[in-house]
Design brief:
Elements (H helix, E strand, L loop, with lengths): L5 H8 L12 H12 L5 H7 L14 E8 L8 E3 L3 H6 L11 E4 L2 E3 L4 H8 L3 E8 L7 H10 L12 H6 L12 E4 L16 E3 L14 H11 L10 H22 L10 H15 L5 E7 L7 H22 L2 H4 L2 E6 L20 E6 L6 E4 L19 E2 H12 L4 H5 L14
Parallel strand pairs: 1-8, 1-9, 5-11, 5-12, 6-7, 6-8
Antiparallel strand pairs: 2-4, 3-4, 5-10, 9-10
Helix pairs in contact: 2-9, 8-9, 10-11
Length: 433
Amino acid sequence: MLRNDPETQAALDDWTFPGRSVGLTRRRFLQLSAMAGAGAAMASPLLSHLEAYAAPPLGSHDPILVLVMLAGGNDGLNMVVPIQDSNYLQLRPTIGLTSSQTLNISPSVGLHPSFTNLKARYDNGQVAIIRGVGYNPPDFSHFTSMGYWMNAWGGSAQTAPNGWVGRYIDNFPNAATESLYSVVLGSNGVPLHMVGAQSRAAALPLSVSGKFGISRSNQDDQRMYDGVSSFASTASSGLGKWGDMVADGNANLMRLTRRLATAYPAQAAPDYFVRQMQLVANLVNKNLGTRVFSVELDGFDTHTDELVQHSSLFTSLDNGIEMLFSTLNPTWADNVIVVTFSEFGRRPQEDVDAGTDHGTSAPHFVVGPRVRGGLYGQQPGLANNQLVNYGNLAAPVDFRSVFATVLQKWMKADDAEVLGKTYPQLGFIGSTP
């Protein structure tokens, strides 16, 4: 339907909002929308951003990255346990895990018992564990430390005011308008690592009812959405630039949300994080052109009752990663890797509340069929003379080495350009799609 089509015009002029007896013409709707959306020049980038939305579809050899933020500062010593280091249980007499409790992957290393699916994947060579990951000198503030991880700039020049994924996406064609190159789920906004100089990730809701125009189960809503979709065409609205932009933007929004709606599962997983990974898999299967996904599992600031909290959190992480790969179409499964990150680890010594305080380094997972599984980096020592920064773990692996390896070996990008400096490559990528 077009704006200048006589039958469409007549229908739209009589169109009413559901439950309202007074008609609202297309022209009046656009006038009100333009007044609301165009009160200042700052509205222009938003409305023009609605012109593109989708990204070019991926080919069979294009890689996909899923970043999992373990928000709060994950205690890596109870995630990947140095079961042969006697200092470990001395430092953690209450919350320490013994070799009989862990899922042992070597004589000296055990996984937290919640990682049953990841243990099976590790045994199949699909999980890389990079130990001792952090940065120097450390910062124990959640906000400052997460800022370092998300920004990830190591260049000698002034710090780049954006994030490493955003800078990577900036190199794609039409990065300023193709908003589905990168997608954020489970967040109230777009985190720093997904913001570039031009690019901005799309933040999507986890439920089909969370975005205007997605749910079409109500007949009145369906008529309203179809009416809004009909407002755009190559013809002028007669209301000037703002009217045309509102009309075209609303129509593009309706087109995108109808494409996205089919990615939302009819039976959503009850666990919040597992639901995120389920939706990631469905979006990958729809091939909307997304190169990078960012999801979040919160709750890792375990100052108290860490054993109870970790059991729940790691079960969610384990089930979520399994949900992702079990839901992916086999066409795309080999194109995906999962990388975890957190702002810092925890102190090696437990606190008085059966928890741990803010620390330094921690291990991180990289998971996928094309990952070269195994142990990387090195386990920081726990003896008194090996602890640094007032009793904390050393950080032998700069976190940007992990990102540099992902960028160069997986994403086929210029890691030095994105990170501002060359970092040592790690060997956890086996092959690319």
